[in-house]
């Protein structure tokens, strides 16, 4: 039994199925990765079920017991007791700030350690990096807590440079992440439409179904791409994608476009390298940007 349909829970489902284990995934919400939207969440459920994972939505784990024969029971609200040999709890993390808070270091509104762009905390000579601390979100301009391995690496490099007598600043993040579950890749960068509205933008979005390569070319794979932009000036605010090929590289490119504050009008005719083994003359990004620009 895997508890929690976030990215770690989904990756665990794949890892356990690869070992031929029967896997049940419990999730207290209706769809996995709710941030990606219901349509993309439904594609993830489809991929789970295609790979024989039993998906139990609206099912919160409430406790465990072990029977005399050694079997494990996972108690749930809604689906009774689910029997298991192993239970994997993948229900998310909180920043562990006890050490910093105890030292009087400022904790930000996100609940994580607040730092300067140099990664120095409010206590001179004490630096923080990684999952315990927040960072600047370049789209909202506000502090965010997005605990990810690549961010931790970069923040560690910046902190180390400054501690070692050099001078470096961490430029912040645009909120990019990715994962895969069986054959389906998922990635996102920037803000979702809902987050953009919450951050004070007037967003619009467009979702397209496309192909990673021209349909006539071997290996063409389906993908779905959603772009989010600011109605006021066309600025790209976010992108989310799922699919069976060409997902992460496109979202990474869009992360660079968000960092460069490009508009969907600029993206609609951006000069991407093109040859059929790699994509179409009109890339899914062009198509989505053109439709959103309308
Ligand atoms: C299963 C899994 C998969 C993941 N996959 C991805 C991925 O694909 N991409 C991605 O970007 N991120 C991924 N992450 C997140 C990523 O691992 C974290 O963001 C990253 O490891 C954070 O680095 P960190 O150095 O802040 O913390 P950690 O890697 O947790 O390291 C903190 C270290 O500090 C030690 N420590 C804690 N307290 C003390 C103390 N008081 N004294 C001394 N030592 C202490 C801990 O034991 C630990 O070794 C994944 C996480 C998990 C759990």
What's the alpha carbon Rg, rounded to whole Å? 21 Å
Largest beta sheet, briefly?
5 strands, antiparallel
Shape: globular
In spatial order, strands of the major sheet run 10-11-14-13-12
Mean pLDDT: 97
Report what the structure shows.
The chain has 294 residues and is an alpha+beta fold. The chain has helices at residues 7-18, 38-50, 98-102, 149-163, 193-198, 248-259, 264-268, 284-293, and strands at 2-3, 23-26, 53-56, 60-66, 72-77, 81-84, 88-89, 135-136, 143-144, 177-181, 184-190, 203-211, 222-230, 236-243. Strands 10-11-14-13-12 form a 5-stranded antiparallel sheet, with helices on both faces. It has a 4-stranded parallel sheet with strand order 3-2-1-7. Strands 4-5-6 form a 3-stranded antiparallel sheet, with no helix packed on it. β10 and β11 (184-190) form a beta hairpin. The structure holds flavin-adenine dinucleotide (FAD). Flavin-adenine dinucleotide binds next to α4. Flavin-adenine dinucleotide binds at residues 8, 99, 130-131, 147-150, 152.
Q: What's the helix and strand layout?
A:
Blueprint: E1 2-3, H1 7-18, E2 23-26, H2 38-50, E3 53-56, E4 60-66, E5 72-77, E6 81-84, E7 88-89, H3 98-102, E8 135-136, E9 143-144, H4 149-163, E10 177-181, E11 184-190, H5 193-198, E12 203-211, E13 222-230, E14 236-243, H6 248-259, H7 264-268, H8 284-293
Parallel strand pairs: 1-2, 1-7, 2-3
Antiparallel strand pairs: 4-5, 5-6, 8-9, 10-11, 11-14, 12-13, 13-14
The structure holds flavin-adenine dinucleotide.
The site of flavin-adenine dinucleotide has 9 residues, from α4.
């Amino acid at each position: 039994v895997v508890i929690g349909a976030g990215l770690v829970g989904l990756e665990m489902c794949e890892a356990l199925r690869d070992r031929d284990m029967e896997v049940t995934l419990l999730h207290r919400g209706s769809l996995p990765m709710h941030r990606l939207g219901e349509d993309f969440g439904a594609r993830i459920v489809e991929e789970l079920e295609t790979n024989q994972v039993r998906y139990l939505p609206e099912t919160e784990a409430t406790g465990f017991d072990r029977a005399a024969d050694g079997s494990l029971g996972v108690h749930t609200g809604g689906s009774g007791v689910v029997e298991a040999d192993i239970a994997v709890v993948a229900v998310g993390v909180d920043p562990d700030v006890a050490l910093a808070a105890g030292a009087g270091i400022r904790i930000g509104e996100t609940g994580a350690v607040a730092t300067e762009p140099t990664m120095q905390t409010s206590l001179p000579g004490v630096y923080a990096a990684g999952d315990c601390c927040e960072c600047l979100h370049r789209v909202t301009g506000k502090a965010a807590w997005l605990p990810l391995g690549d961010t931790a690496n970069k923040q560690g490099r910046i902190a180390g440079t400054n501690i070692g007598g050099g001078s470096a600043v961490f430029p912040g993040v645009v909120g990019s992440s990715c994962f895969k579950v069986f054959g389906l890749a998922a990635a996102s960068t920037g803000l979702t439409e809902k987050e953009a509205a919450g951050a004070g933008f007037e967003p619009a979005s467009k979702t397209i179904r496309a192909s990673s390569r021209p349909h006539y070319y071997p290996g063409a794979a389906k993908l779905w791409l959603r772009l989010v932009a600011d109605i006021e000036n066309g600025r790209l605010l976010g992108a989310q994608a799922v699919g069976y090929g060409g997902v992460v590289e496109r979202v990474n490119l869009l992360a660079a476009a968000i960092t460069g504050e490009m508009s969907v009008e600029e993206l609609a005719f951006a000069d991407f390298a093109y040859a059929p083994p790699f994509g179409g003359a009109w890339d899914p990004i062009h198509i989505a940007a053109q439709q959103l620009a309308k």
